[in-house]
Amino acid sequence: MKNISKYTRGYFMPPVESMKWAQKEYITEAPTWCSVDLRDGNQALVVPMTLEEKLEYFQLLVKIGFKEIEVGFPAASETEYTFLRTLIEQDLIPDDVTIQVLTQSRDHIIKKTFESLKGAKNAVVHLYNSTSVAQREQVFKKSKEEIIDIAVSGAKLLQKYAAETEGSFKFQYSPESFTGTEVEFSLEICNRVLDVWQPTPENKVIINLPATVSMSMPHVYASQIEYMSEHLNYRENVILSLHPHNDRGSGIADAELGMLAGGQRVEGTLFGNGERTGNVDIVTLALNMYSHGVDPELNFENIPEIIEVYERMTKMKVYDRQPYGGKLVFAAFSGSHQDAIAKGMKWREENECEHWTVPYLLIDPKDIGREYEGDVIRINSQSGKGGIGYVLEQQYGLDLPPKMRESFGYSVKDVSDRQNKELMPEEIYDIFIKQYVNIQSPIEFKNYRFTHYDDYQTIVNINLNGEMHEIEGEGNGRLDAISNALQSNLGIVYTDLVYKEHALEIGSKSNAVSYVGITAEDGTVYWGCGIDVDIMTSSVKALFSAINNMVKNKKLQIEKGSSVTI
Known about the structure:
Elements: E1 32-35, H1 37-41, H2 51-64, E2 68-72, H3 78-89, E3 98-104, H4 107-116, E4 122-130, H5 133-140, H6 144-164, E5 168-176, H7 183-197, E6 205-211, H8 218-231, E7 238-244, H9 251-260, E8 265-268, H10 282-291, H11 303-314, H12 335-350, H13 372-375, H14 385-396, H15 402-419, H16 425-436, E9 443-452, E10 457-464, E11 467-474, H17 478-490, E12 495-506, E13 509-519, E14 525-532, H18 535-554
Helix pairs in contact: 2-11, 4-6, 6-7, 8-9, 12-14, 14-15, 17-18
């Protein structure tokens, strides 16, 4: 990078060390949340929302549980003025929800702002003016005292028009571009505004400290917040609010450390929409708290529904890796990750677990409306036996033996690799059915019967090369007798027959499923699966499937009475 010399740090540290926040481990209670989606978020959209879209979005925010919602800048836009009046006149604002409006420190703008609020039950009027060195020098060309005069005059005008307007109003002040302002000056201007408003326990005010442009590492913002928190006048009657932006990608960290440092309220948006790189993402902030066992007091139990409305209203997309909301944030493609998740889920089924500890999953996806099958275990060429087996078991009730699961895993990975794509559960199931289940060629099983149950003598009817044959055998058990009949009559040689069975529920129909593995003389293990309403028949079908897979793999010609070493 050639132009490094043109940059330097543009923030200001507090005049004294302010690091008490660093002694705290985690956030212990939810802040007051204020959604600014309909103002800060909306003004950043390529195509701002229509009146109808804003009304639907407002209802979404209410449903999520926001108790403070910034609805716009009514004096600056006819659309926002109309939106506010619609909310009030159609009685769309619940009694426990406070709307917030933004205003500059100018008489006619403040006057129109209060006119727009006529009839509102509860409202926050948010006054702001820019205070940073860059804004003072380059934009306003005003001294510090002149900037203070703008804020103080605006504070007095809020008092004046509030007294003349019916309703319950709370005041808020923001030294905009706080992060580029000398901390001592931020404190001075905020205290001058507080001296005008004289907050009381019954009439608290909000001081909002925005990272209008994120300029520092998060610990610096936290130290700035702590200094302000400890030195503001009327502190017990001040609600200290944070408004981080994400220019440096640290909006979440700024907000979290800012709360440790004294922040009691957070302004942000769903999924971080907003100017430039966006506002702080309230979804992530809230669910981070949730992952620590702290109630965020917002309801994100149906993230897919929230995303659908968000994307439709804003015409923006939630990125696949967006924390909690993205399509892939719970997805595990890696074989070792899938295996750990599958074992963790099984552990929960077998043990009484008070807390969520499943490897690789920060929270239970089901808590926010996500599904394990489609959202967590995803299958491609990087996947392993654990994940593939988990999909078959969860989706289709097939609990494969470990070695069969491993063998099938290689088959699935090979298909994914050759097709260069992710495989859906139904595709995995289809591969399994075609490769293992009730294989009828080249040796087709027709039926069997036992002539002597004491010593398990059996007669098996098969179709071989288009001809029906009846073969006999005996053994230590029924499946062993049928296996011996096949080996002795067809000359097939294998050892180490492995067997597993379990019930299989498919819809309202109950079946039995069996798995059989056999080992050829070269050490290769071949697998088969049988599904039938009868458990013994499913076992026989599994055995035939395993033998047929072995015969086809070796490309052997089998005839009755032949002798074949495999």
